[in-house]
Structure formats: structure tokens, C-alpha cells
Amino acid sequence: MTSENRPFITCHVLDQTRGKPASSVPVTLQLVEPANTFDATFTAQTDDNGRVSAWTQSITPQDVVYRIQKDGAVPGTEKLKWRIVFETEKYWKGTQTESFYPEVEIKFYTDLAQTHFHVPLLLGPWGFTTYRGS
């Protein structure tokens, strides 16, 4: 996938206990701030490589940023706050693994400049780690 085709926000889930990608994890991405009058919630499921390469919604996260810029919805806004939720309970049940976290929620900021943002999640049944990827 070329950089022109990849979404503004992507993510990747790796199962640390198996050393493999975590597939079929439902993921929800939502714009938190600024609050909008249109629906800025996106859903996806990780693929066999543990990645979300497309969001299932009629508009994309990029479209949301364009609308905010075009409408001047929030003058002076330089950052957008997002929430991404990984619904891990189903994944762990599917691997017959007891876990502590039924879901993992991460809040993060992006800019309005359409820079690509990647949110990797290193997942274990008793803990998790995340960082800003590339």
C-alpha cells in the first residue's frame, strides 16, 4: 500500500504471548475533540497480519479533518483528540486464553496537517503497551 492510499490513522495489534499478529480484533476509532455535528466514528477488524488498513465507514478520518478545516469548525484548533478501542475479549476467548482486559482504549492527538499516524498495540493477557508508530 502506497503512502497516498493508506488511511490517515492506522493500527496494528501483535499478540506478545504468541509472537504473532492478533487477527479478527474489532477496532473502533472515534474523534473526541473537537466535538462535531456529524458522526466521526469508524470501525474495522484487524486482518490476518493484525492490521487495520481500511475503516468501514462512508467517510474516512481524512474526510473529517478536511471538513473541520473547511468549515473552520474550531478556530485555533491545531490538534485533534481521538479514541481507539480494541475489543480484545473476543480475541482472547478465541485463543482460549484467560485475560484481564476485555478492551483496550487509547486516546491520542493528531494534527490537522494530514500527517500519517500509526497506533501499534502490543497485547498480552495481563498487560499491553503502545507507542506512536510510523
UniProtKB/TrEMBL annotation:
Q: What is the lineage of its organism?
A: Eukaryota, Fungi, Dikarya, Ascomycota, Pezizomycotina
**What family does the entry list?**
Belongs to the transthyretin family. 5-hydroxyisourate hydrolase subfamily.
Name of the protein: 5-hydroxyisourate hydrolase
InterPro entries named in the record: Hydroxyisourate_hydrolase, Thyroxine_BS, Transthyretin/HIU_hydrolase_d, Transthyretin/HIU_hydrolase_sf
Q: Name one GO molecular function term.
A: hydroxyisourate hydrolase activity
Catalytic class of the enzyme: hydrolase
Q: Which reaction does it catalyse?
A: 5-hydroxyisourate + H2O = 5-hydroxy-2-oxo-4-ureido-2,5-dihydro-1H-imidazole-5-carboxylate + H(+)
Q: What are the BP-aspect GO terms?
A: purine nucleobase metabolic process
What UniProt keywords are attached to this protein's entry? Hydrolase, Purine metabolism
Signal peptide range in chain numbering: none
Q: Which Gene3D superfamilies match?
A: Transthyretin/hydroxyisourate hydrolase domain (2.60.40.180)
Q: How does it assemble?
A: Homotetramer.
- Residue stretches spanning the membrane: none
Q: Which residues form the Transthyretin/hydroxyisourate hydrolase domain?
A: 9-133
- Function, in words: Catalyzes the hydrolysis of 5-hydroxyisourate (HIU) to 2-oxo-4-hydroxy-4-carboxy-5-ureidoimidazoline (OHCU).
Q: Which SUPFAM superfamilies match?
A: Transthyretin (synonym: prealbumin)
Q: Which CDD domains match?
A: TLP_HIUase
Might you give the EC number(s) for this enzyme? 3.5.2.17
